[in-house]
Amino acid sequence: MKHFLRPMEAPAEQVDRIEAVAKRCLDAARIKADDGTWIFQPDGAGKYPGRIYFRDFCYAVEGAGHLIPPEEIAAAIDFLIAGQREDGLMANCVYTDGRPVYLVAGTRPPTDNAQFAVKLVDAYCDVTGDFTLYERHRNALMDGMETVPLSEDGLVFVDPANPHSAYGFTDTVGKTGKVLFSSLLYWEACMVLAKLGQRSEDHEGAHIWFEAAEHTSHALKEFYRPRDGMMDAATGDCDQTDLWGSAYAGVVRALSKKETVRVGEYLFDRYGDCFLRGCVRHIPQPRFWQRMLAEYTRGTYQNGGYWPVATGWAAMVLDRYDHATALTLIDEAVDLLEEEDAPEWINDTEADGKLYVASAANVLAAVKRV
Questions:
Q1: DSSP 220
Q2: Per-residue confidence (pLDDT) for residue 339, from 0 to 100
Q3: pLDDT tens digit string along 218-233?
Q4: What pLDDT was estimated at residue 5?
Q5: Residues 317, 264: Cα–Cα separation, whole Å
Q6: Three-state SS at 344
Q7: In the chain, which residues have pLDDT < 70?
Q8: Residues facing residue 224 across a β-bridge
């Protein structure tokens, strides 16, 4: 299943430039595991060495899967899923020696790996047209989804008394209560499993996952703020404007068309508070997260840094309100990706984490040649 919003139209020369950066990142990030499997690190500059993550590799395949040999995608997915725990929990990452890691910050695992496992397998099916990988891992994917901590209304939940990582790209942020981004991913993964079930003629399974998706979709409105059309990151700690989550909700159509336009309008009106050189802050200036799980200087990394990872989503939503501004954002992002060698994040004075695959792949996923 592809993203629901269509990629925005962009000049062919611009798309070619993004694709060239993405290929450079993938080539640099590609390493061989101890068993001979080719795997892809999050970056090609050694910031996250010797390991592969579900979420990062999912974004790589969703945005730049056509640049990776299909057999290498399948083998890397097999390598990741082999790290699944007996209780169904998917690993957060797997090292080259096959060693899985489940925890990041706190005493419980992140709340998004099962969803990214589903999305990753679906992305492979979408790129290749080969559904045998899904058939091989169907039970593992469903077992993984059963480990996602949910509230009674079907939203992903983090206990305020036991805070831990939620969405991996904010894994140092102490969001608690019902959390938006992982809930969006859960809804999306349920839809993916339902549609894959339909294709494999597992009609009973498809019905179960469609019902789960519908249950969650109704509850997602709890995050929505009618006064400005944006969504909060959580219902407990860090109940703050979530720029990434609001944009992504529009992209996957968890928001209506009218609500998506309102997100685009917010980004347009507060462009200077949300963006820097084509990159997106997690929350708008001048705010910082209310609770952190690890200490980072304000204005850096996940507490005030600006990331290209979310630029594509923001541009797609901006495109529904003002096409010229959306193109400007992509223009700025392309220049940044080339000039700073695809950083993980930036601020006014630094660009950190070179050759970061998701930075280029997610921008590439949002555009199509005209």
A1: G
A2: 98
A3: 999 999 999 999 999 9
A4: 92
A5: 5
A6: coil
A7: 1-3
A8: 231
Check residue 3 and give its pLDDT. 56
Instruction: Encode 172-184: b = buried (16+ Cβ within 10 Å), e = exposed.
Output: bbbbbbbbbbbbb
Q: What share of the chain is helix, strand, coil (3-state, %, to 5)?
A: 50, 15, 35
User: What's the pTM value of the predicted model, to 2 decimals?
Assistant: 0.98
> Rounded distance, CA 158 to CA 149, Å?
7
Alpha-helical segments (H) within 175-283: 180-199, 203-219, 243-251, 257-269, 271-274
Residues 223, 142, 215, 129, Cα dihedral to 10°? 90
| CA–CA distance, 283 with 364 (Å, rounded to integer) | 23
The one-character DSSP state at 89 is P
Compute the CA torsion angle 47, 246, 117, 80 (nearest 10 deg).
0
Q: Say if residues 184 and 220 touch (Cβ distance below 8 Å).
A: yes
Residue the block writes with tokens 């984490």: 353
Phi, psi of 106 (to 5 degrees): 90, -175
